[in-house]
């Protein structure tokens, strides 16, 4: 999961990365704590996506009154299903140069990869496309680790000299510490500013933590992550839910089959509204809760359920479908493909409430396609 | 022949006293797999489905020295420890079913296994089956009823079942079906399995089930392009409609840094004349063209 900017900065700062002076505000009354800072400040809404400035979610404030207004405007506002719970107020920084640096997992070589560039401040994918030669790549062996000479080499390529080059070693080492100690998939500073007085400072930070490791990081809270309310709700029931932009609701088991089902919807000229994977060994309850989410979603015109039971039992799925329909009154048509473990029992349970099942996903999709208009 | 597992496979089940471990030990026995022993620390001396349980992997091997494969059902937070235990005890094939193992753990034990010459399948995978010979995994027994010329390697469990099922329905058996798992870091990748299929006399055709994320399919395509794979390959890739930057359930299924997109994978395959099916069922049609 992606951490909010302030949380990522906090982690890096703990290991010695300089960040602008600032404070986090959770309610308009909190702005009194900003008195210790030097105005003007920049109010940055803590939302986990790029392009905040363009969305009007960052603004300059000159007085406490301004800051309070900004807090009132931002807090509670819902952007792309994500409610703003925190606003970071920071002092401005006099920037001479903007750099880029990150550490990620290198899937191909089964190690870590450090990326750096003199083209900071903008989307790194754009740099990769337009001028790949401006990206410095450093492979790090997980067993041997990151050595100082490697970092000095990167600093040199970035054109850093003197104390800035020394600072860069601190920054890279701190990033590596956060990356390995917090089970991160990505630690990125962009931009890493070289200030007018020659210091390195992290202006924006992106840290992604492996969800599966959260049990050993009690100081990381999902409250500080990119999960929307619906995704958080789905996680409680062991469901993987991703909201998409279409109108055909999808529920399937297994990530691959769920993606294949989305693709099938598209193949028939329709648009998937979601990715909802009930996972392996889904229970009646999780199926029920998942289906209820789709049935109460106003964007959705019809639902396609595609189950190939291995660990997952078709009778459990059928029971879940029936209890969802008992709890939610709906006219939305549901098309169910049910195959695999305990298929016969499952079909019987559905037949008793008048629900038809299909042999293949294509057949179910064909029927769905006929039942709705685009 | 077949690859990875066959009649001579003798299995140790790590985590055999847990729900999943004991249930799937039973299913594997029903399939005809030689399940020789189980391990759960503190539960040595018990039996599960008639299979003796030991406290440590070493104990099990001392008693039953011809065990050559381990399957791991141990919960995620303890799974890494079990993998090291199996490797250090000298087992050469370790199949990890457990999902949600932290990626950094997987990266470390996978690299360790490479240094020790051990093959890891998974983590977060459905396992391996050589139909009518042996199944070391959780793939549903009733689908794997026909052995034959098609080798399948797949990153997704349910899609593996789906495509194997349609092949069997069409009368086309499989040599070995390998679910390698959908995590970003896994022990054995698509290319490595395809190389094994190339060497396997029983496998005549290869099905590759891929998905968005990573560059495994692109690397396979490049290798096929070099002419080293002589057997026909057919592919299917899921995630055509997945938006970039969003993780689709599988920890590995995410298009990031512009890499691992559906388009780049399809293009890579098409450039080396590997047909890519638009739907899982279309795989059968494409394979049939070769078999005819």
Automatic annotation (TrEMBL), chain A:
Superkingdom per UniProt: Archaea
The record's free-text note on cofactor binding: Binds 1 Mg(2+) ion per subunit.
Binding site for substrate: 253, 310-312
Cofactor(s) annotated in UniProt: Mg(2+)
Gene Ontology MF terms in the entry: ATP binding; magnesium ion binding; succinate-CoA ligase (ADP-forming) activity
Any one GO BP annotation for this protein: succinyl-CoA metabolic process
Keywords: ATP-binding, Ligase, Magnesium, Metal-binding, Nucleotide-binding, Tricarboxylic acid cycle
InterPro entries noted in UniProt: ATP-grasp, ATP-grasp_succ-CoA_synth-type, ATP_grasp_subdomain_1, SUCC_ACL_C, Succ_CoA_ligase-like_bsu, Succinyl-CoA_synth-like
Catalytic activity: succinate + ATP + CoA = succinyl-CoA + ADP + phosphate; GTP + succinate + CoA = succinyl-CoA + GDP + phosphate
GO cellular component, one term: succinate-CoA ligase complex
Residues the record lists as binding ATP: 44, 90, 93, 98
SUPFAM superfamilies: Glutathione synthetase ATP-binding domain-like, Succinyl-CoA synthetase domains
Family annotation (Pfam families): ATP-grasp_2, Ligase_CoA
Pathway membership: Carbohydrate metabolism; tricarboxylic acid cycle; succinate from succinyl-CoA (ligase route): step 1/1
Domain ATP-grasp: 9-223
E.C. designation(s): 6.2.1.5
Binding site for Mg(2+): 190, 204
Signal peptide (UniProt feature, chain positions): none
Binding partners and assembly: Heterotetramer of two alpha and two beta subunits.
Family note: Belongs to the succinate/malate CoA ligase beta subunit family.
Function: Succinyl-CoA synthetase functions in the citric acid cycle (TCA), coupling the hydrolysis of succinyl-CoA to the synthesis of either ATP or GTP and thus represents the only step of substrate-level phosphorylation in the TCA. The beta subunit provides nucleotide specificity of the enzyme and binds the substrate succinate, while the binding sites for coenzyme A and phosphate are found in the alpha subunit.
Record's protein name: Succinate--CoA ligase [ADP-forming] subunit beta
Gene responsible for this protein: sucC
UniProtKB/TrEMBL annotation, chain B:
Pfam families named in the record: CoA_binding, Ligase_CoA
Function: Succinyl-CoA synthetase functions in the citric acid cycle (TCA), coupling the hydrolysis of succinyl-CoA to the synthesis of either ATP or GTP and thus represents the only step of substrate-level phosphorylation in the TCA. The alpha subunit of the enzyme binds the substrates coenzyme A and phosphate, while succinate binding and nucleotide specificity is provided by the beta subunit.
EC numbers: 6.2.1.5
Membership in a protein family: Belongs to the succinate/malate CoA ligase alpha subunit family.
UniProt KW keywords: Ligase, Nucleotide-binding, Tricarboxylic acid cycle
Residues at which substrate binds: 161
Transmembrane regions listed in the UniProt entry: none
The protein, known as: Succinate--CoA ligase [ADP-forming] subunit alpha
Positions that bind CoA: 17-20, 43, 97-99
Residue stretches in coiled coil: none
Complexes and interactors: Heterotetramer of two alpha and two beta subunits.
InterPro entries: Cit_synth/succinyl-CoA_lig_AS (IPR017440), Citrt_syn/SCS-alpha_CS (IPR033847), CoA-bd (IPR003781), CoA_lig_alpha (IPR005810), NAD(P)-bd_dom_sf (IPR036291), SUCC_ACL_C (IPR005811), Succinyl-CoA_synth-like (IPR016102)
Keyword presence, Nucleotide-binding: yes
Assigned GO CC terms: succinate-CoA ligase complex (ADP-forming)
Pathway assigned to this chain's UniProt record: Carbohydrate metabolism; tricarboxylic acid cycle; succinate from succinyl-CoA (ligase route): step 1/1
């Amino acid at each position: 999961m992606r951490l909010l900017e302030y949380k990522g900065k906090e982690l890096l700062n703990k290991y010695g990365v300089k960040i602008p002076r600032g404070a986090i505000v959770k309610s308009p009354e909190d702005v009194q704590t900003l008195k210790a800072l030097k105005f003007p400040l920049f109010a940055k809404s803590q939302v986990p996506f790029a392009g905040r400035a363009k969305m009007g979610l960052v603004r300059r404030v000159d007085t406490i009154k301004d800051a309070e207004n900004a807090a009132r405007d931002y807090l509670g506002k819902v952007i792309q299903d994500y409610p703003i719970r925190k606003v970071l107020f920071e002092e401005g920084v006099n920037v001479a140069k903007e750099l880029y640096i990150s550490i990620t997992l290198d899937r191909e070589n089964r190690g870590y990869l450090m990326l750096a560039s003199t083209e900071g401040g903008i989307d790194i994918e754009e740099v990769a496309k337009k001028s790949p030669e401006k990206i410095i790549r450093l492979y790090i062996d997980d067993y041997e680790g990151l050595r100082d000479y490697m970092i000095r080499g990167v600093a040199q390529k970035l054109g850093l000299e003197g104390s800035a080059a020394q600072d860069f070693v601190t920054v890279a080492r701190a990033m590596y510490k956060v990356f390995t100690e917090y089970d991160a998939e990505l630690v990125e500073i962009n931009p890493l500013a070289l200030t007018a007085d020659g210091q390195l400072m992290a202006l924006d930070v992106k840290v992604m933590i492996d969800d599966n490791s959260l049990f050993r990081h009690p100081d990381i809270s999902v409250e500080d992550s990119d999960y929307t309310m619906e995704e958080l709700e789905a996680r409680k029931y062991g469901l993987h839910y991703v909201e998409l932009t279409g109108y055909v609701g999808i529920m399937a088991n297994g990530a691959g089959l769920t993606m294949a089902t989305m693709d099938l919807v598209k193949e028939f000229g329709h648009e998937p509204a979601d990715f909802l994977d009930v996972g392996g060994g889904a229970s009646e309850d999780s199926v029920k809760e998942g289906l209820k989410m789709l049935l109460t979603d106003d964007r959705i015109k019809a639902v396609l359920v595609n189950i190939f039971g291995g660990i997952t039992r078709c009778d459990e799925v059928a029971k879940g479908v029936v209890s969802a329909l008992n709890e939610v009154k709906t006219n939305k048509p549901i098309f169910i493909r049910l195959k695999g473990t305990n298929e016969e029992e499952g079909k019987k349970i559905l037949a008793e409430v008048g629900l038809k099942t299909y042999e293949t996903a294509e057949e179910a999709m064909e029927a769905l396609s006929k039942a709705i208009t685009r | 022949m077949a690859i990875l597992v066959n009649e001579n496979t003798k299995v140790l089940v790590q985590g055999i006293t847990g729900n999943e471990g004991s249930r799937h030990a039973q299913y594997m026995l029903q399939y005809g797999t030689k399940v020789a022993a189980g391990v759960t620390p503190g539960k040595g001396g018990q039996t599960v489905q008639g299979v003796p349980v030991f406290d440590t992997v070493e104990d099990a091997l001392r008693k039953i020295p011809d065990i050559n494969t381990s399957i791991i059902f141990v919960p995620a937070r303890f799974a890494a420890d079990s993998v090291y235990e199996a490797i250090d005890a000298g087992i050469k094939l370790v199949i990890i079913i457990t999902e949600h193992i932290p990626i950094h753990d997987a990266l470390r034990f996978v690299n360790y296994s490479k240094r020790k010459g051990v093959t890891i399948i998974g983590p977060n995978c459905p396992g391996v089956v050589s139909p009518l010979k042996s199944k070391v995994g959780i793939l549903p027994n009733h689908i794997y009823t026909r052995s034959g010329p098609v080798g399948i390697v797949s990153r997704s469990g349910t899609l593996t079942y789906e495509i194997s099922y349609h092949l069997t329905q069409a009368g086309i058996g499989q040599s070995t079906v390998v679910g390698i798992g959908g995590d970003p870091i896994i022990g054995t990748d698509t290319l490595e399995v395809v190389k094994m299929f190339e060497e396997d006399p029983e496998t005549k055709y290869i099905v590759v089930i891929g998905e968005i994320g990573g560059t495994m399919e692109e690397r396979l395509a490049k290798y096929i392009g070099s002419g080293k794979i002589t057997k026909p390959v057919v592919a299917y890739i899921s995630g055509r409609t997945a938006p970039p930057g969003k993780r689709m359930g599988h920890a590995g299924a995410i298009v990031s840094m512009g890499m691992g997109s559906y388009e780049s994978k399809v293009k890579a395959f098409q450039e080396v004349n590997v047909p890519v099916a638009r739907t899982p069922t279309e795989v059968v049609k494409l394979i049939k063209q070769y078999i005819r």
